[in-house]
Design goal:
The complex is a heterodimer of chains A (about 850) and B (about 210). With about 850 residues, chain A is of the alpha/beta class. Chain A folds into five domains: about 120 residues, Phosphotransferase system, mannose-type IIA component (Rossmann fold, 3-Layer(aba) Sandwich); about 110 residues, HPr-like (Histidine-containing Protein, Chain: A), CATH 3.30.1340.10; about 100 residues, Glucose Oxidase, domain 1; about 110 residues, Enzyme I, Chain A, domain 2 (Orthogonal Bundle), CATH 1.10.274; about 300 residues, Phosphoenolpyruvate-binding domains (TIM Barrel). Chain A has 35 helices and 25 strands. In chain A, the strands form four sheets. An eight-stranded mixed beta sheet of chain A has the order 9-16-15-11-12-13-14-10. Chain A has an eight-stranded parallel barrel with strand order 18-19-20-21-22-23-24-25, surrounded by five helices. A four-stranded parallel beta sheet of chain A has the order 2-1-3-4, sandwiched between helices. Chain A is globular and about 95 Å long. Chain B has about 210 residues and is mostly helical. Helices cover about 70% and strands about 0% of the residues of chain B. Chain B contains nine helices and two strands; from the N terminus they run E-H-H-H-H-H-E-H-H-H-H. Chain B is globular. The model of chain B has no long low-confidence stretch (mean pLDDT about 95). The chains are: A alpha/beta (about 850), B mainly alpha (about 210). Chains A and B meet through helix 2 and helix 3 of A and helix 3, helix 4 and helix 5 of B.
Amino acid sequence: MIGIVIVSHSAKLAEGVRELVDQMTKGRVPLAVSGGIEDPQHPIGTDAFDVQRAIESVYSDDGVIVLMDLGSALLSAETALEFLSEKQQGRIRLCEAPLVEGAVAAAVQAMVSNDIELVLAEARGALTAKTAQLKGAAPDMTVPAASTVATDAPKIRLTVCNRHGLHARPAARFVSTAGRFQARISIQNLSRYTETANAKSINQVATLGAREGHEIVITAEGADAPEALKALETLVTSGFGEAEAAIERDAGLQLPEASPADEGALTGIPASPGIAIGPIALYRLAPIAVPERPIENPMNEWQRLQQAIEAAQKELHALRALATAQVGDYQAAIFDAHLLYLEDPALLDAAHRRIFDRKMNVEAAWQSAVEKMVAAYRDLEDPYQQARAADVIDMGQRVLKLLMGVVPASVVLARPSIVVAADLTPSDTAQLDPDKVLGICTEFGSATSHAAILARGMGIPAVMGVGMGISRLAEETTLALDGAHGRVWVEPNSDLLAELKSQRESWAAEQQAVCNAGRQPALTRDGRRIKILANIGGAVHVKGALEQGAEGVGLLRTEFLFLARVTPPSEDEQTAAYHRIADTLGPHPLIIRTLDVGGDKPLPYLDLEVEANPFLGLRGIRLCLDRPEILKTQLRAILRASPGHRIKVMFPMVSTLTEIRAAKKILATTRDELSRAGVPFEKNMEVGMMVEVPAAVALADQMAAEVDFFSIGTNDLSQYIMAADRTNPRVQALSDAFQPAVLRTIQYIIERAHAAGIWVGLCGELAGDPLAVTVLLGLGLDEFSMNPPAIPAVKRVLSKLTMVEAEAIATAALKLETAEAVRELVKSSGNPISRKPA
Amino acid sequence: MVSQKKLRAWIEVLQKVYAENRQYLIDLDSAIGDADHGINMDRGFTNVQADLSKTDPPDIGAMLKTVAMTLIRTVGGAAGPLYGTFFLRASTACAGKTELQAADVVAMFEAGLAGVLQRGKAELNDKTMVDALSPALVAMKRALGNGSDFRQIIQQGAAAAEEGMKNTIPMLAKKGRASYLGERSIGHQDPGATSSYLLLKTAVDVWG
């Protein structure tokens, strides 16, 4: 790895720079400092021999970059070179970059690249971000010349789906992935009209400002360009391993198939299914007349904007909470995007320039800056990006209203109605009362607008983009709409009304039938009852899981309570969350997994260190035992939520008996404390552990003596058994859970558990794989827990199998040599999946 | 002609000279720099004295190398690498010699100055030690060419260095900490040129 040397007259300064660099690199980049001289009275100075020592201490053939402060530091550094070998001299670069910024930039780049010229270039460019911030040279919302975009090279367009975008750690992962390939790779943020950036440059990638929802284009030229693009695509679409919920967006984007419009019907975009009939309630966004006035003090105007933005942020946080309560966390996260727009440097910079350079008053400056950003979004080709214009307008209006002291009109409905509007902002939609709003119909908007996503979340039928001046209809006009097909009827005649009503009823009955079918218990052909549970990541998913036919929750990932916040969730907050989920589940069991995070998840209040290998680092139970107060608070909350519910708890990432015993000891202490305080809790709550680390497999008999159940986490287990990273496309095939080595491991775990008299569940993706189900059933697995959408298919597979058949297939599968052979065997063994028409 | 002993005497007296002129150099440097030149030169040559007393270098080259290394290690400021390089190059010019002829002495200064120029990248009239050393070398070479005797050569060198030193007073500093002062550096004698003059003046005093 490339080494970094800091030369300063001052030992304190040198150490300070070291501190700043180490904060970024956690000591992963070899760094040596040479500061001050050995004269207690006059310690300021440099010593060429000490510089030489520093260089030698971090020297490798990858090279060394020396950064220095001023004066004699340069001369000493140059002198030091004279005392090094010619070969070494050729690999050492004295760098003129500013000491602090240069050292940080060089070190960060050195983490991901061994190309000394590239690292040097990064250090030299280290003032870019600072210059942009202080001089206001942030990228403007103007379209760069087309010549900056490579035209014929292979490229891919992707939407950044992780919450924090291409910042800090994800940017570093992006750059390091790009750095593995020879191809020249560039990246451009289409959503911000940035220049193309070098994908191997951490400075450039980080300053693209690519955030969640932004669209990026990655271009690669060179022999391994296809592989590079594939790897980067995997990285970006996997959300840099950050989020699970991100995938849901794509599901929300799928447009239902439009069917031909009926006679007399208006056609719009099907945005949220369901049939609604009722009087319309017009919702008009009163245009705000923005005053223009001469200003005396731009600073006053700017400060008013800051205050309005702060107030808007508070409103958005409140609105987000409201939306969370109504439609769940994922949909509510839409307002996080609004919060991001409020911080958008391009927008703020545009407003700043209008106030200070053009001496515009704050209201006019803000309006103009927002309009420019809106226009930029509307000009984009991608419909998803276009739909973001509505979000920007919404956010802009919020601030404008605050600036002008206008009280936002709320939609108050006297009786159940269909809300008709030119367009609905997400804020408007979130404030609608689902009990009063029968349906939504808009002139503009799309299925991908956040208003539509919210409507779906709230279960309100909606048709968007009807056009035709529908918002000019008279109040109380009767309207009917079919959200699944995007059809709208004005004043439908009685025949049509009758037909629509019967359609509404049959649609509801159909929905119910689908639900009921899924809710049948899973039975094998020979009548064996198999427990099918759901993996969920928050309260919002519980209902859906039950509707899909889950008989409980086999894995509640509690990370949703901990992520994306600045303080850990309180005991009361956690208790309430667990309580709510358990209440919804009623008599069904709920297995709560304690916090499973590590260095790859940003929890600011835990101050987690960046680790070179977070999946082999301080995570899961290791982290919780390191911060026992976190675990204790969570266990108290789980215990407090347990009375009257079937709650079980399990610990992730256990690899030693000491760990499971330590976790159980904390649980015992917590129980004692609650008992003494007279707080009720379920005394017989089952305690289990995830089996996902090979060490826990080897100790399975001893581990089994410590717990009431095992839950096999095949996602991590496969990676650890096969020593292959699932997110690395080059070894993805290895981390396949169908690998015979993984299947034999699962068999071993089940055998040991049953020998010890405890039951075993499996909560990895494998449990939801219809092909795997046969083998797992045959291996004697007691409980399957999977993502809810997989449940119906798994139940179907189980219903076609007998235990004898499954056991025979499993026995044969364990003797096979490859993952493909296992799949082939299951398919050819009459698994119902293979009989499914193509 | 300069014997190894005489050369060593020069170095030893230089220690006293820089100790005596410590405050003077500090004062000069505090006007346009960081006020450490006197401290640095004194510390450097005190350490040179200590190191030389512990060793018995076989020849002048080896002795000057010890001087160079110690200066580089202990001076601290820019003078460390600069005078260090001066003596390092000088030591190479005198490698294996136990006595120096007039031409050798001039060659020694020439090599030393070349090192200073290479290290500091200063030009004449940048208000640095080069403004003393460079005229001194020109004068010495001229005197050598004219067939002057050793004493005259050194004397003329020292005289030129003194003049060069004084000429730095009206100059605008272009290098080092003083360059940050811009116009305000005008009107002050350069401490580096002063310590360089002292180098030659001491040579006259010891060898003359």
